[in-house]
Description:
Rossmann fold, six-stranded mixed β-sheet, 6 helices, about 15% strand
Amino acid sequence: MKIIAINGSPRKGWNCDKLLHSWVEGIKSVYQEADIEIVNLYDLTFTGCRSCFACKLKGGRFFGTCPINDGIHDLLADIRHANAVAIAAPIYFGDINAYTKCLLERMIFSVMTYGNPPRNMIENPVAFTMLYTMNAPEDYVVDHNYLSRCDEMETTIGWAYKCNVERVTAYNTYQFTDYSKYESEYFDEADKRHYRDTHFSLDLKAAFDNGANCVRKLLKA
């Protein structure tokens, strides 16, 4: 069983990374033998889609695959043939951060055609989980429909990879080790710290449970 866990945040050891590793621990709690690959996206050098359309060229060498030979070339192939993938991404300005979006562009566009109707070229379903962290409190996110673009992206991932995309979301995250060093008077550091101390463990548990449930479903399939 091949599992890929991708940290799309530039920061290691912080909120996204912690959620991702909790998801991985959930996988291991059910199936120790899983082949798990953990990727820190910002360690890799790559771009978004270049609109070369080699993935659409009839009879072409790269039909249905991305031909760009850069830092995510092998990762894209691994994702295509994985059993499950989790991507942890911070939300910037109400959307998935840019570096993760670059991965998603390449991951999705290369496996879909412009046929009528469009079709995907994934041989077997790949179970996907998106793990999000954001500074905004949950009530703000709900009131402003903050994750509507994430909804759209998950729908597209689900269509391309033949799955129902799962989601774990951590709100109101703690951003700095020392708030006094930054111009951050907009936030009440004590409130942020209290929320982290009382809620983030629940977010980690949700990620753990999602990983465990994911592998249970795969073992039953």
